[in-house]
Design brief:
about 290 residues; mainly beta; globular
Length: about 290
């Protein structure tokens, strides 16, 4: 028997119906700072037979040439600031994330070696940063979630944001997992359940967190690197096998954007930063929430 869900109207209203532009209307550059010939990497400028390459245009080349002013910091043309649990920029921004010998979080916000969110000054979006502790908490990076968006709002109106199929309810593994018999007051291990739980605790002082659209999640992909394709100095929490069969966590992160087939949604593989339009909504994968910065 399917699990009947009653999801708050405010949560459903926050789910984007389609892929949208980032809040500021500006786009990040790709992070690509190399040029290529048909067979090899080529030093700047463009090789004569292959002109107009990505690395020669936009914010990345401006950074390379020392002509890009940033509010924060970040690889290539990216411009990020680290935010504390209260949603304010950390006083110390130039320190690396601290981990112990087992890879668990060991830093502090006071020292600038741990942060809760990242603000993107280009797109105007705030991004969640996941945790990693010996006893996994609500936002631990190891948890996984299926894709779920209720087919109907509490007021009876249709919810077009799910593409015609609500997806897989409670198919992941997460903190305080719901079970009808053993844990009826638990949390649903799916995207809608996670959004609801994070908003309830007020991550970074806010309660309007949501699933990112495909375009929004792609905006933080750093195509100048891989394994993972993201600025790990700002986002040290990306899980994935990355070629290691001993790590069981998939390197797949959900977006909130439905795909062409109603039982699928867009996801993003952070190994290379590849968007995938045919991921079954029942798959248990990672989630990174987003909100519009003030």
């Amino acid at each position: 028997m399917p699990i009947l869900r009653c999801i708050p109207l405010a949560l459903l209203a926050s789910l984007p119906a389609a892929s949208v532009l980032a809040q500021t209307g500006r786009l990040n550059d790709t992070g690509q700072r190399l040029t290529y010939t048909a067979t090899a990497v080529s030093p700047l400028p463009d090789p004569p037979d292959f002109p107009g390459q990505d690395a020669r245009h936009g914010r990345d080349i401006a950074f390379e040439e020392g002509a890009l002013a940033k509010q924060g910091r970040g690889a290539a043309g990216f411009d990020f600031s680290k935010l504390g649990a209260d949603g304010q920029p950390l006083p110390v921004q130039d320190q690396a994330w601290a981990s112990d010998t087992q890879g668990f979080d060991a830093g502090s916000e006071a020292a600038g070696t741990r942060w809760s969110c990242v603000r993107d000054h280009v797109t105007g979006l705030d991004w969640e940063v996941r945790t990693h502790t010996p006893v996994p908490a609500l936002r631990d990076r190891r948890w996984t979630y299926s894709w779920y968006s209720s087919a109907q709002r509490p007021d009876g109106s249709a919810n077009a944001s799910n593409g015609g199929d609500p997806g897989g309810s409670n198919r992941g593994e997460c903190f305080d997992r719901y079970d009808a018999d053993s844990n009826p007051g638990g949390l649903f291990c799916d995207s809608a359940g996670y959004v609801e739980a994070v908003n309830a605790v007020g991550l970074c002082g806010s309660s309007d967190w949501r699933m990112p659209t495909r375009r929004e999640l792609e905006s933080i992909v750093h195509y100048g690197t891989r394994w993972p394709a993201i600025d790990t100095a700002m986002f040290p929490d990306v899980t994935g096998d990355f070629g290691n069969p001993q790590n069981p966590v998939p390197n797949v992160t959900w977006t909130g954007t439905p795909a062409a087939f109603s039982d699928q949604a867009w996801s993003l593989y952070f190994e290379y930063g590849t968007p995938v339009d045919g991921t079954s909504k029942t798959l248990a994968a990672s989630v990174r929430l987003v909100r519009s910065a003030p």
